[in-house]
Amino acid sequence: MAFIRIAARKCKTIKAMASPTVSAPKREKDPKKRVVITGMGLVSVFGSDIDTFYNKLLEGESGISLIDRYSLVAGKRALEDVNLGYEVLNKGSAIGGLTNLTTNIQNHVQKGVKKVSPLAIPYTITNMGGALLAIETGLMGPNYSISTACSTANYCFCAASNHIRRGEVDIMVVGGTEASIIPMGVGGLIACRALSQRNEEPKKASRPWDKHRDGYVIDKIMESLESAVKRGARILAEYLGGAITCDAHHMTNPMPDGLGQSSCISKSLQDAGVSPQEVNYVNAHATSSLIGDLAEVNAIKQVFKDTSELKMNGTKSIIGHCIGAAGALEAITTIKAITTGWLHPTINQDNLEDDVTIDTVPNVKKKHEVNVAISNSFGFGGHNSVVVFAPFMP
Question: Which domain of life is it from (predicted)?
Fold first, then answer.
């Protein structure tokens, strides 16, 4: 299936309000335990150049189309971006080698067991993306995969930062990958009513928080500060903390009141050592699902009592839902928001839900100096993950 690429409709710009003066986030003083971002790489609907990717987001240009993603390319580009020799890797995928599995099942049914590839199982398991990157590049440190649906990449960030904080490694390559846009992958999501049915208007299909949303469209280097300083590395941002929780509620739907998600947000801020008042940007999970979008808003309101200065946007409105890769692309988006001072718009914001009283940066990019940012990722099974980033301050 294919989607048409279009430019988003422009609307009147909303005047940005000045952010209040708040105290600086509490920092871990030990440079061995401070985690910084020193390189990023991606493969996306807008190609593999990070500046091009973010500029397209700022323009609000829809990138929804039939695509492939390759963890090898993204991982190697992250290493190139940081000008680094090969160290260690932690990657995840939500679904794994679905294309390979489907092809080999078809071969088995139609042609018999002799037509099943001897690599059918290795290429199906979720850890193989990281393993192949390690084989290609010589990475020999901790190398494993995490699979927690759409929250996968954020789980990986939390796990990688813990390796660094415990002093086990100096540098981690971490992220997420997915390639599930095949008949079986799409069909399964249609069957559980997760996808938008706006097939006659694909350019308007992904519309977080809009009253007429009906489902989603499918579609970095972490290092200790001590290591980065020794290498003279370019520091893009600082990872302050993160958290993971489980709703223990439903296979596909979050708790409508957002309790499980609000707990995860609160725990991430506690781990980061910052107060809710210091956060002024949220890169939301925002998949365009009927229950999920409002549950996330409820969760945000529970944690951030005063949201008048808070900005949040939905990256999936532009690039669709990348499943296991979503958190990685949205972390890059969050870091680019920090480094550029610009927030990309949430497109297709034509008829906002009444309960969404937070500035969603509708349809037009907005200038905003980020003090502390969180990036939310919530997956099937009630897997919640939130990571906290901020501008690096020595």
Answer: Eukaryota
Give 81-140 pLDDT, tens digit per residue. Answer: 766 544 445 555 545 556 666 777 788 788 888 888 887 777 777 788 788 888 887 878
Catalytic residues: 150
**pLDDT, tens digit, for every residue of 190-241?**
455 544 455 555 555 566 777 655 443 333 568 999 999 998 999 999 999 9
In a domain, 6, yes or no: no
Q: How many Å separate Cα 138 from the centre of its chain?
A: 26
**Distance of alpha carbon 63 from alpha carbon 4, whole angstroms:** 8
Question: Does residue 22 sit within a domain?
Answer: no
Model pTM above 0.70: yes
Instruction: Look at the chain and report how many structural domains it folds into.
Output: 1
**How far is it, in rounded angstroms, from Cα 254 to Cα 121?**
32
In a domain, 12, yes or no: no
Mean pLDDT within 285-292? 91
Q: What is the CATH classification number for the domain harbouring 242?
A: 3.40.47.10
- State how far Cα 333 lies from the chain centre: 8
In a domain, residue 235? The reply is yes
* C-alpha dihedral (159, 161, 163, 167), degrees to nearest 10: -160
Instruction: Give a three-class secondary structure readout of the chain.
Output: CCCCCCECCCCCCCCCCCCCCCCCCCCCCCCCCCEEEEECCCCECCECCHHHHHHHHHHCECCCCCCCCCHHHHHHHHHHHHCCCCCCEEEECCCCCHHHHHHHHHHHHHHCHHHCCCCCCCCCCCCHHHHHHHHHHCCCCCCCCCCCHHHHHHHHHHHHHHHHHCCCCCEEEEEECCCCCCHHHHHHHHHCCCECCCCCCHHHCCCCCECCCCCECECCEEEEHHHHHHHCCCCCEEEEEEEEEECCCCCCCCCCCCHHHHHHHHHHHHHHCCCHHHCCEEECCCCCCHHHHHHHHHHHHHHCCCCCCCEEECCHHHHCECHHHHHHHHHHHHHHHHHHCEECCECCCCCECCCCCCECCECCCEECCCCCEEEEEEECCCEEEEEEEECCCC
**Full residue range of the structural domain in which residue 383 is found:** 38-390
Q: Phi-psi category of 44—alpha, beta or left, where left has phi over 0 and alpha has psi -120 to 50? A: beta
